[in-house]
Write a structure and sequence with these properties.
- This protein has 226 residues and is of the alpha+beta class.
- 24% of the residues lie in helices and 27% in strands.
- The strands form two sheets. Strands 1, 2, 3, 4, 5, 6 and 7 form a seven-stranded mixed beta sheet that branches.
- The N and C termini lie far apart (51 Å).
Length: 226
């Protein structure tokens, strides 16, 4: 068997765009770099693949080292290979994204990060390594996932209001949704079921509560989701 010789052997890096949602706001986990290149700049967590690691193993190791995040589901969405992203030389970057409840995860800066925090998703600073393109594609991947899979319901209470559901979609898609049109669409989704009860313990007018039925979702036409 012929061995693969040097085909330029570009280093492989792995970056993870972790979105968090809590209290009606979409956020993203970023780190502040404490070493060159781009010292002091904010960046998407990531780093070089080492030894016999898979891309997934590198992603989880770097997230833990730089943000303290662990045991989250990551989904690969793109590979970046253009020149000029890293001033030290060309790299090939495998990118992942995740969507989690940011209230449940506290970011802790370690390793080569001097800070780590949740940034409002639509107010991110200029990113190191030309990662702005990566971030834009991660948003596209997140929106596609929300359109075609029931990810939204993993971030809502077991019993939620339609206002809470609408707010989540507005944040993910960064748009204002007409409430009447939204509720007409929801009415066609028989996997969103009324709990036959309203909120309690509130000063304002209580809203009707709903729940997600996973069994009914399996029979739903995904073309009509959102």
């Amino acid at each position: 068997m012929t061995r693969l010789e040097d085909k330029s052997l570009y280093p492989v890096t792995v970056d993870s765009v972790v979105f968090g949602y809590a209290e009606g706001e979409l956020k993203v986990a970023l780190i502040e770099r404490k070493m060159d290149p781009y010292v002091g700049k904010w960046a998407i967590p990531g780093g070089f693949m080492e030894g016999e690691e898979t891309a997934e193993e590198t992603a989880m190791r770097e997230l833990l080292e730089e943000t303290g995040l662990e045991d989250i589901y990551l989904e690969q969405f793109h590979t970046f290979s253009s020149h000029g992203r890293d001033p030290r030389g060309r790299t090939i970057t495998v990118a992942f994204f995740a969507l989690i409840d940011s209230e449940k995860y506290h970011l802790v800066a370690t390793a080569d990060a001097s800070d780590a925090k949740w940034w409002p998703a639509y107010q991110v600073p200029p990113l190191a390594f030309h990662q702005d393109e990566m971030y834009a594609k991660a948003l596209e991947a997140l929106r596609l996932a929300i359109r075609t899979r029931p990810l939204a319901f993993e971030l809502l209470p077991k019993e939620f209001t339609l206002t809470q559901l609408q707010k989540l979609y507005e944040q993910v898609f960064n748009i204002e949704i007409d409430t009447r049109n939204f509720r007409r669409k929801v009415a066609k989704m028989d996997f969103i079921c009324s709990c036959e009860k309203k909120q309690t313990g509130l000063k304002h007018r209580p809203a009707m509560l709903y729940r997600y039925d996973s069994a009914r979702y399996k029979e739903f036409s995904k073309e009509n989701f959102f």
